[in-house]
Design goal:
The chain starts with a helix and ends in a 6-residue tail after the last helix. The chain is mostly beta strands and about 400 residues long. The N terminus is likely disordered.
Length: about 400
C-alpha cells in the first residue's frame, strides 16, 4: 500500500511536468506580473504640473528594455523626444533632461523581465503651465534686406534676471562666417554685432530657443523660432555739422555731397555713428514727445528716417527756407531740402530712395556729445573689447 502511494505521488509529479508547459511547468513562475511591476516610469502615470526639472526616466529592475518611445505634445504639435537605453538595458533617459513646459508627454515602453516575459506599458503626464512668460521683440524683420550697419537687437517685455541662460538660448550666425558677439544693455535688451560692419551679401540667421528658459524667477520664455535677413550694399553717410553738408558714400565711392541743416546751437545734434532703424514716407513730429515744449508740431514731415530712440531723425524739410548748406536751425535732427508732400527729385527724396534700414549715418563736428550706444542702434560707437565685456556668459 505504501509502495502504491509512493508510486502514485511519482506519477502525479510526472503529470505536473507534462503537457504544453502550463501552470507550474513554467519554472514555478505563476501568474505574470503586472506591467507596472516590470516597467517603472517617472513621473508617475497621470501626474500633472510636473516641474521643468522633474526626472523623466524609464527603468526595469531586471531583464532589459526592448524599446522606449516618448512623444511630446505642445502647441498642437507632436514631436519625438530623443533618448537612449543604457548599455545594460535597465534604463532609458532623454538626451535633454529638461522638460518642456505646458506639454503632455506619452511614454510607450516594451521590456523583457528577468524570466524572458514581455511586457508593454503606456503612461502619460503633463508639465507645469507657467502663469508668466517673456518674449523678445527682434529687429530687423524676417527676410529683410538691410544695410551693413545693422545690429541684431532683442527688446524683452520683462526684465531678465538670468541673463546668461537667456543669452545661451539666442544664436546668431552668419554666412560667410564671422565672429558675432552679444552685449547686454541693462536687463531688458540684448544686441549682437560683429567687430566691423557686415560684408555685403552676408546672410544672417537668428535662432531664438527661448521657450521654457527661466529668464526670471517663475517667468519663462515663449518663443522657439528662426528667422534670417540679408545684408545689402555698403552705404555710410557722413554729416559734417560744421560745414552743413552730408557726404553719401556707396561701397567706398562718393555718390553725392548734399547740403543739410543740423541742430541749432541750443539744440545740437549728437555726434557719432547712428543706424537707420525706421523709414517713413511721412510722419508727424511733435516737440512735446521728445522732451521739448510746444516749439513745433508738424503733421506731415516727409522722408523721415529714425536714427535714435530719443527722437533724432534725418528727414525732409519744406518749411526751413534757404538754410540748407548755410546754417544749423533744427531741434537736433538732420534736415534735407524737400517739398510739402515729399518730392522724388529733392535731396531728401533722392537720399530716401537710396537708403536702407541698417545704413549708417555718422555725424561729426557737432557741438554735442557722442550718441549713447543704447540710444537706437548706437553700438558701433563702442570699442570691440568693451562690447564683448557686455556678455553675461563668462
Amino acid at each position: 500500500m505504501a509502495v502504491l502511494t509512493w508510486a502514485g505521488l511519482l506519477a502525479a509529479a510526472a503529470g505536473c511536468t507534462s503537457g504544453n508547459g502550463g501552470g507550474i511547468g513554467l519554472g514555478g513562475l505563476g501568474k505574470p506580473p503586472a506591467p507596472e511591476e516590470v516597467i517603472h516610469v517617472s513621473p508617475d502615470d497621470g501626474s500633472k504640473g510636473v516641474r521643468q526639472d522633474g526626472t523623466l526616466r524609464v527603468r526595469v529592475p531586471s531583464g532589459r528594455l526592448e524599446s522606449v518611445k516618448v512623444v511630446k505634445s505642445q502647441d498642437a504639435q507632436e514631436t519625438s523626444v530623443p533618448g537612449h537605453i543604457s548599455a545594460d538595458g535597465l534604463r532609458w533617459e532623454p538626451d535633454d533632461r529638461r522638460l518642456a513646459l505646458a506639454a503632455r508627454y506619452t511614454v510607450d515602453a516594451v521590456a523583457l523581465d528577468g524570466h524572458g516575459r514581455r511586457s508593454a506599458r503606456r503612461t502619460t503626464f503633463t508639465t507645469h503651465v507657467p502663469e508668466e512668460r517673456f518674449i523678445g521683440y527682434v529687429s530687423p524683420e524676417n527676410r529683410s534686406t538691410v544695410g551693413t550697419g545693422m545690429i541684431v537687437s532683442l527688446e524683452f517685455n520683462r526684465e531678465i534676471e538670468n541673463r546668461a541662460a537667456v543669452e545661451r538660448a539666442v544664436h546668431v550666425t552668419a554666412q560667410p562666417a564671422v565672429e558675432i558677439r552679444p552685449h547686454w544693455f541693462g536687463k531688458g535688451r540684448l544686441d549682437f554685432r560683429p567687430e566691423r560692419y557686415w560684408k555685403p551679401g552676408t546672410r544672417v540667421t537668428v535662432a531664438l530657443k527661448l521657450r521654457d528658459v527661466e529668464g526670471a524667477p517663475g517667468v519663462y520664455g515663449l518663443q522657439y523660432k528662426t528667422f534670417s535677413f540679408t545684408v545689402g550694399r555698403h552705404q555710410v553717410s557722413t554729416v559734417d555739422a560744421s560745414r552743413h553738408t552730408m557726404e553719401v558714400r556707396r561701397d567706398g565711392e562718393l555718390l553725392a555731397t548734399v547740403p543739410i541743416t543740423a541742430g541749432a546751437p541750443k539744440t545740437t545734434t549728437y555726434n557719432g555713428k547712428m543706424v537707420v532703424t525706421e523709414m517713413l514716407e511721412v510722419t508727424r513730429m511733435n516737440s512735446r514727445t521728445v522732451g521739448f515744449g510746444g516749439e513745433y508740431d508738424i503733421p506731415d514731415v516727409p522722408h523721415a528716417m529714425r536714427l535714435t530712440d530719443s527722437g533724432t531723425f534725418l528727414h525732409g524739410n519744406y518749411w526751413g527756407g534757404d538754410v540748407f548748406g548755410k546754417a544749423n536751425v533744427s531741434h537736433g535732427c538732420v534736415g534735407l531740402r524737400d517739398v510739402k508732400g515729399g518730392g522724388s527729385d529733392t535731396p531728401a527724396g533722392w537720399f530716401f530712395d537710396r537708403s536702407l534700414v541698417g545704413d549708417v549715418v555718422e555725424v561729426v563736428r557737432s557741438d554735442d556729445k557722442k550718441v549713447a550706444p543704447d540710444n537706437g542702434l548706437g553700438g558701433w560707437n563702442m570699442g570691440w573689447k568693451e562690447w564683448k565685456a557686455g556678455s553675461a556668459v563668462k
